[in-house]
Predict the structure of Serine hydroxymethyltransferase.
Amino acid sequence: MPVAETAQTSARVRTGRAAPSGGPSAATPMPADFAALRRQDPELAGVLLAELDRQSSCLQLLAGENFTSAAVLAALGSPLANKYAEGYPGHRHHAGCELVDLAERLAVERATALFGAAHANVQPYSGSSAVLASYAALLVPGDTVLATALPHGGHLTHGSRANFSGRWFQFVGYGTDRDGLIDYDQVRDLARKHRPKAIVCGATAYPRHLDYAAFREIADDVGAYLIADAAHTLGLVAGGAAPSPVPYADVVCATTHKTLRGPRGGLILCGEPLAQRVDRAVYPFSQGGPHMHAIAAKAAAFAEAATPAFSEYAHQVVANARLLAEALCAEGLDVVTGGTDTHLITAGVGPLDIDGRTARGRCAAAGILVDKCPIPYDPRPADGCTGIRLGTAAVTTQGLGEREMPQVAGLIGRALREDRDTGADVAELVRRFPPYPDAYPGR
């Protein structure tokens, strides 16, 4: 079988997407009236086309990004973008919301069924907005919160002084041991010492599964709420490739992009006793009118995530990440915890005598996108950290599989060592796996 045909066939299996069933409209990532934008505003249309080219020509290893389906993009570009709908279905402050109510109800019903939650709020604009609303529902300014320390994989919303979290609440950070694994004894000791109002479990750069039962036990021991930040892993949960925090946490915050592969946005899941408090913390406390086009796109993504094809995709994401982590070790990188359970890998580049910023730049010059990040017990400050963070969600959507992961690791190693021919080989690889094969017909 020709190489191109092999790649296309395997892509349908790995991406969890069915083959297009119709003409261009079945596969294009933009509405059919894109031509109208080209006529009216060719300068902006050129920017959009250039961004499509950029996404199609890079090896996308940013752990927080993915490629949505054409159905999700269609919902984002729909007339629902025109509708003001402050409030919740059946209780809006504007007329004409009967149909957008249906869209939001669909999103809520699909989210609760997908994750086995009693209640879902699909209105948060982002993951950070979801965290803000969760804190607002359970805490008051000045309360103590125990969360992952930023140098050990925590997020800005876990107590950064530059963020609302660090300004409004008293955060205590827990960390990992020398092997890069969460020290649950330390979490328990800190909880008993500081008696936090809430404990946050979850991180932005931690590659292993969390022991949600252990966190629940610690929270119960000190009478704290348990908030799970599952921004990175909820898509894997949907696909059965990661444990769910829903049975253990009082509130679960997440994004709908990343591994869930939906539109950029946030999601909150909780039990019925906290439903009203969570809803009020989203609207009217922290947000105004919801983005109804984004909510419709979330509904489309939840429907996709409930399919067997998505489950296969989620498991392939993890298989790819594990193999990539192993291959990166062979390239001389210091992979934190020695591997991964998820889509996410953090690795030290100190053994190559460079820092994270330099590593990111060298990879970008070769068409490989990664993030710099701190790694546990890194003696350098955040701007000079010696870690990089990468993920396999997007490349798996494109159709790359276990056969390609050693090649990807080799390209990263060559880019870090400034092999001038790396960019051409990256371009050759990604050319075989376009994220939107039939985009913009007739451009």
Summary: Confidence is low (pLDDT under 50) at residues 1-13, 18-28. The longest strand covers residues 144-148. The chain has 17 helices and 15 strands.
